[in-house]
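Same chain as my last thread, 182 residues:
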Amino acid sequence: MIAFLFRRFRWMLLGAAGKELARRVSERQVDEARNELAERLPDRAVAIADKLPGDVLKAAGTAQVAGRVASKSARLSKDVATKSRDMAVTPQRARQRLSEMGEEWQAQVAEEDRSLRARLIAQTRGRRAADDVLLGGKTSWEDEPLPEVADRVTSGRPVRRARNALVNRVQRSYRPRKHDWQ
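reply #2:
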């Protein structure tokens, strides 16, 4: 039965414990602020404040703690707003960086294409035409077609081989034996 009640009311108990903890912590902070204020004030002002009805110094300490909490919460909310803004701006920055990388890539590809074409033109039409292409002054590869590339040449040395003749008798592989012991 006690376990059932504990399960039923545990959040209420945890809430009450948290409230009590917050009250004690805030009470301690208010007392520290009151003592700090009493130390900074002249003795005559403290004596007058003690004669007034209510605890004026404690009220001032409460106001001081409330001001500190308000400034902390303002700083925290500013930091959260800054972080959330940065998180919102990050995809835009990423897209912008990706587009910049694409433009850099295209520029590099164009540069490589121009240098390779300049090397080919240097071999076929001479160094002067290649320099014009490399410096970007004349785009001769667009005006005139490049020379045709020759067909593929088979690599290696041709080797003549006689076809293995089939054997008249029946055997497993239908190929003649290479060695006598087989």
